[in-house]
## 1
Amino acid sequence: MAMRWSWSRLSLNQKLAAGALTLGLLALFARPNRGNVITLDVKELATIIDKEGDHVTAGELGGWIVAGHADYRLIDLRSEKEYAEYHIPTAENVTLTALPDAPLLANEKIVLYSEGGIHASQAWMLLRAKGFKNAYTLKGGLDQWKEDILFPTLAENATPQERARFERAAALAKFFGGSPQAGGTQTVAAKMPEMPKVEAPAAAAGATSTPPKKKKEGC
Amino acid sequence: MATTTPDLARPAERDAVHVAAAQAYMNPYLAGIGLGLVLLAAFVTMGRGLGASGAFSALVAWALHSVAPAYVASNEFLSPYIGDGSTHPLKAWLVFEVMGVFAGALLSGLLAGRVVRTIEKGPRVSNAVRLSLAFAGGMLMAIGAHLARGCTSGQALTGGALLNAGSWAFMMCVFGGAYAVAWLLRGEWK
Amino acid sequence: MEMSAPFFKYGLFGDEASLLVAFAIGIGFGFFLERAGFGSARKLVAQFYLTDLAVFKVMFTAIVTAMLGVTYLAWMGVLDLSLVYLVPTYWVPQVVGGLLLGAGFVIGGYCPGTSMAAVATGRIDGLVYALGIGAGTLAFAGLFPVLRGLYLAGSAGAQTLPQLFHLPYGLVVFAVVLMALAGFYGAGLVEAHFGARGERS
């Protein structure tokens, strides 16, 4: 056969080139999966939500920030204006519409938050649908963050146990530039204390709007 | 089927006196396929590519941390290599990979009789000048690699294979920068 | 086929085992670097004097091989490309860094990876070069407050060429293969012209 005759006369390099060309031509039809194939395991999701495995609490998040963890990405889903007014230290601003194109990695630990938590939950669903297995929401959203972390309250008739817990919460609140509300019976909603300035929290040192989180995977 | 020996046996470096007794280098395309398969293995097993300069950063961060911990902790570039102290800074993927590079190169060099204590340079340049330039080149390379977030392995090879946009721009610039200064430095090599 | 790669990110092995994998992969990397002659600065810089284009040939063969492998494995659904780490693109520092690195390559004779191969095969200049990398890393860290703006300029996120040019992935793969083959053919002509014996693809 003419084909075999000519093939055997090719040098090794020419054979390699022919092989590469064939594979390259075939690759024209390739549709490599880059996370666009949606596989939603509805039961798995329902179980996660039911077991509350889909969120972190304000206390947990605060602990990570204080400890300087860098293994998560905190996403603020609110508008740029709201983000500029206040955001949780280390947070990046990605609005809900920008989320599908945001440069997030499917294996990163991602914590989403919005004002209340509904938007965050919806964004969580979007990310899960895109195959992000490590996405979480901040339980109760920014409202809960304010209540638990920035402005913890202590009732007048608190037990010593509650007092001890409040002492710890108060230290955390000061770290984040908030103000603990001791002895007051008023709720946060009734009397809104002043929000900390964005750059005020001690934790924000070195963690400005573009946190230089080192990806250790790089060269 | 044609035999592959003529390609492999061809002397790759005619005028390299110092490797006179050594075997010829491998066919560059076969070596490239080997290197590509190693890179592919890294993608498939780890989900990441190869690297080298990051290992140097970890080593420098660790060494400096043992003499000036406060400086390293306050340095935005070095502090991530130390981390939160839960793991040893040298217990890093790239550090182990680069130790492997050393072992693999030694193995290949021994098999081919190419392990020679020598200084690579052109015939017209002194050892002192060559070593000074090696040091300066290393410094410049390090600054460039850290700016670009990777060196020839981490950016050009790895990013090239993944069609990473920034890596391709980087690769073009590496060749551009090298050709731009090559003529000035011909005395070092020719 | 069940998607199960990258193995590490699917939890098939842990952190400790990943270090062993790192060492094994490094051995392969170093072995082929040395096989190709990249433990020798003269072999490497010959690329820039056009007498021996092995650097170009090896590098682009490796890129094409790994690129085709990744494309086919992702096509078959074995490898999840979204889990393979992409260094984020920052245009300005990557252009500037590339130029500096290219200059450093010719001045020093190596790049970080090949300098390890040089040290392993007894090259004293390779060792001095590696020390230079250490010094450069220190200098970069010291200058980081000044260089921070440059370091973060032109951020474009994790971005691939197909995304950038809005082209199908397979088409870019094919274009790279064609470009490489044309380059290899051209490399043979260049080598023939500039003295060293050439190898045509």
## 2
Amino acid sequence: MSAYDKLIFELSVPGRVGYSLPEADVPETDAARLLPAAHLRVRPAALPEVSEFDVVRHYTRLSRMNYGVDTHFYPLGSCTMKYNPKLNEDMARLPGFARLHPLTPDDATQGALQLMVTLADQLAEIVGMDAVSLQPAAGAQGELVGVLMIRAYHLDREGSPRKNVLVPDSAHGTNPASTAIAGYQTTQLKSDANGEVDLLDLERNLDEDVAAFMITVPNTLGLFESKILEITEMCHAKGTQVYMDGANLNALLGITRPGDLGVDVVHMNLHKTFTTPHGGGGPGAGPVGVKAHLTPFLPVPVPTLEGDRYRIDWKRPKSIGKLQAFWGNFGMLARAYTYVRTMGPHGLRAVSDNAILNANYIKARLQADYDLPYLGHCMHEVVFSARRQKRLGVAATDIAKRLLDLGFYAPSIYFPLIVEEALMIEPTETESKETIDEFCNAMVQIAREAETARETVLAAPVTTPVRRLDQTLAARQPNLRWTRGPSPVPSRPSTASPGRSVAS
Amino acid sequence: MQESGTMHYLPNTAAQRAEMLRTIGVSDAEALIERIPAKARLGRDLDILPALAEAELVAHIRGLAERNAHAADYACFLGGGAYDHYVPSVINHLLLRSEFFTAYTPYQPEASQGTLRSIYEYQTMICELTGMDVSNASIYDGGSALAEAALMAHGVTEREQIVVSRAVSPLARQVVATYCAGPRLPIKSVPWVDGVTDLDALRKAVSDKTAAVMVQYPNFFGCLEDLDAAAAVARERGALFVVAVDPIALAVLRPPGEAGADIVVGEGQGLGNHLAFGGPYLGFFSCGKELIRRMPGRLVGATVDRDGQRGFVLTLQTREQHIRREKATSNICTNVALVALAATIYLALMGKEGLRKVATLSTAKAHYAAEALGRVPGVSRRFDAPFFKEFVLRLPKPPDRLLRALRKRKILGGIALGQFDRNLRDCLLVAVTEARTRTEIDAYAEALAGVVG
């Protein structure tokens, strides 16, 4: 496929403009007279010179080089790529929200604060916690908030933050990374033969130096941790706090609640479970729910209702502080609020029921053709291994690339790390049986091709704007910005190395 | 099981669900969740607000939105890190291309070239504005970008102390403090004098234990810092020099890269993004190429495909959490790609000349406003230092009451600084962008004269 290959800089023509700005209406407009010479820029920033229509056509063309949820089934495991309702977009764009300055006094932001306080209440009930902070900008920042609150809690009670945090080997990479930033050592726990936390290994590692145990429920294998009540009890016996990574909350709505499982802190990804769009890599939002004993440590400020007035509460002496300059990704909160009010209690329960049904249906349809490392019913996602195909010379990444040609985005691959050649598939509840059947047919077709037409799979993708890309070259000779002149990229044909993709 | 009105996002019919259960080989959906212990089940409906039909919900949410005093209805002179610059219509139209906004992080680059190309363009534009070699794909906001800079400086220098000017946004400084709590990095605050960082105090604060020296340009009060002098202090002691900037100002102000900055970060909201009550915003992060492998966040690089054709990928991922886990340079995963796309489109529309015009108009109108408001009896500028688009006024009456009175005249007059610094409780921070008009400024001056008089 011959594809559009321009960058905006390459469309630039000196003297062309794409802006419409008012004429100056004040007398002095010479920057050189208003600002001291030593502060003035000499060489203008080399931004492109293009017309408005150049911009519109260029970015419209770029958009067509992407697969999105609206255009393609996007079974990216652990990322919950569900339909992003159009109504959410309209509501977030209402001028009373979109044009509202964050430092407007509280008495002039009552509607926005009401939305935040109500959303926090709704989310607290959904996860069974006593309070929710809406400030974290994404799941990873929610994790950092959670671990910092646990740190502050131990410091407050014991005079020491404790030393270690336990993380299962199936955990998202953000868990150990967030733990390290919060100043803790990470100890990795093994999974047992059923893919769940190994209770013996937990017991061996659990002592009074352990600040927290971070657990993902359902775990990244898509399995509910059936011994969760024992796990939280074991942790609490040692004074260890239980942090739940709520990336997989889409499996649990109205069925069970982290708070009822004994979890002390949980984060939610509004861009997964609560339909705010993923935006090509954000913005997201990662609210954090806590039990009552952790509420003194919540990030400041906390929007609250006092009598009939909403206000932003800064007076929280034990707070861990701030994570963003302002109050959180309000635009995402407005979308999530719209969604929660669209669905109501029965709608949310139906979300999880259908997400679980769709994942188990895929599991049933594909288990003859792909290896299933862990048996039993899954929750909202299913993890297969392509080890059988790998022996035939077709790796998980090849299957992913072939799916692109067959009209689907790829599952998460090579994650979780404990599954060889992992294919992590999350259909979500917003996909129909027909779409899922088409996807399963494609997967079965690829399994057949691995046996009889390997070259077709290894050649993929051939229908995308570019074919397999040389990751090694990109890393060895980093080219991270455009420069004028001949193409900065060596235009030699090369053998692509397999790209690795992992879950968020 | 579900009432009508909540099912429009859920396509499977009862008949289809039954058929799927048969394929799975179970008699009912309950069997699929048998691993969840009975004791752990909720066993009742969630006690949340009932579902609303679309028209009801729109009416309800419109009601909430209308209870806010916003910049479409008021003349907005609020700044402090969030600005009412004009957002061209084109941006929203392009952001609503759902191939952009319903995609995720480009794990499969062949099916994500649109996002990857736009990020590569974004990285280039940020480098152009800041005068630095490399930019990452974005961080959550300006506050967390500054905090990540502190952690990175600690990693690079293996030193612990972070020196921060008190003329840096107090909100961003709180974020730095939160991020520094885990690794226990001590923070030393340096006072300001006449609205700019006290360079003598800075010299005394910086030592060979200092990892980073952090200033803001223009600073929280809108004043222009002497970057060369601050950079020299940092360099002399081997600390990294970190500058938080307003990217619009950099269209006319000398880029910090030319003053010897090691890391330049900032809040990019003003580049084509609405105020949105504080987020989502755009943290940008740029540095010298010698520091690339210590950078936090995603990076997009150019490469070639199998046929030798140019293409783009996420690169240098061995810095990142999904590969390095606890040894990663940062925990960031989801960032703010769509906000960065808005900034990219904005910078493309404005271009070389347009962005200079936005900056020049902003500073011109701000200077006009400073003079007009400063002429009101009893009102004066608090600092004499040169400023860009924001300035501090000293008022004869408590700012809160004045602001309320101004609001009655549809003016959001500024930010009362007493909430950040008790020594400034009679002061107001006023921001003026190109979107304000001389008529609005004159009306503000007249109203202010009326309420202080």
